[in-house]
Write a structure and sequence with these properties.
The chain has about 260 residues and is α+β, with helices and mostly antiparallel strands. The chain is built from nine helices and nine strands. The strands form four sheets. A three-stranded antiparallel sheet has the order 5-6-7. The chain has a two-stranded antiparallel ribbon with strand order 1-2.
């Protein structure tokens, strides 16, 4: 037993040797930013799990269907705008790779923040809207006309020909919301109708209705290949003599007799 292992005696009592102090610093407390990031990562994981279950359902718009990653991103973006997951899927579209709010959803987001929007006039030729920030007394007005749309070559698109009034309202919505409440849009400054040129931002190609005959019909068989031209040969008996009456035959020549 070494001297360090021998108990020390103080006033007749055994005292164990003191253990060395570990030179360890306390772990730093997580910063506010790190805590928020960890909470966001957890929210993103939950959103992706939810997106995987919803990706194949008809509740998801065509532009997002079958894309759980995009659906999760849309849910997270909608959460920042104050939208619940199912409301988000009816409010956000991805147009040419850019997420965008539909016009009705953008108005809802702005009005939810306490800002005011009014539709002053709406016809197939002209739309006038006005709005003002929460607590402000001054109004901002925007006007969209068919002539203005024609200058931007918008009226050549099919949806503008079918629903010019709705398209004018969508254009006015986007412009007005950017003027009075761009901070409420969190980077989604354009409505889906502006990017996609359709009033609902979703075009689903029409499919022919299925029938029993279509389901049970056999697949068309490929046409048989044309038969190769076979030469005409006719042999009489087994003595090797050819039929000289076969005028079309090309396989034989009459023997020349002396």
């Amino acid at each position: 037993m070494t001297s360090s292992e021998i108990a020390q005696r103080v006033d007749g009592q055994a005292v164990a040797p003191a253990e060395p102090q570990a030179n360890s610093l306390p772990a730093p407390a997580p910063t506010e930013g790190a805590t928020a990031l960890m909470a966001w990562a957890q929210e993103a994981s939950l959103a992706y799990d939810m997106a995987q279950k919803l990706a194949a359902t008809s509740f998801v718009p065509q532009s997002l269907r079958g894309k759980p990653g995009d659906i999760a991103a849309a849910i997270l973006a909608g959460s920042e705008l104050g939208l619940k997951p199912m409301a988000t899927l009816k409010s956000i579209d991805v147009i040419q790779g850019t997420p965008a709010l539909r016009a009705h959803a953008m108005r809802a987001v702005v009005q939810q923040q306490g800002h005011e929007i009014e539709l002053v006039e709406s016809t197939a030729q002209r739309c006038v809207m006005r709005g003002r920030r929460k607590g402000s007394e001054s109004w901002q007005s925007v006007e969209w006309t068919v002539q203005r749309a024609a200058q931007m070559k918008l009226t050549d698109k099919a949806e503008w020909k079918k629903q010019p009034q709705n398209m004018l309202v969508a254009r006015a919505t986007g412009e007005l919301c950017r003027l009075i409440a761009s901070d409420a849009l969190h980077g989604m400054a354009y409505v889906a109708e502006e990017l996609g040129g359709v009033t609902h931002a979703e075009v689903v190609p029409a499919k022919a209705p299925l029938s029993v005959a279509a389901l049970t019909a056999q697949a068309p068989q490929p046409a048989p290949a044309p038969a190769e031209n076979s030469s005409y040969t006719v042999e009489v008996g087994g003595n090797g003599e050819w039929d000289t009456d076969a005028d079309d035959s090309t396989d034989w020549e009459p023997e020349q007799t002396a």
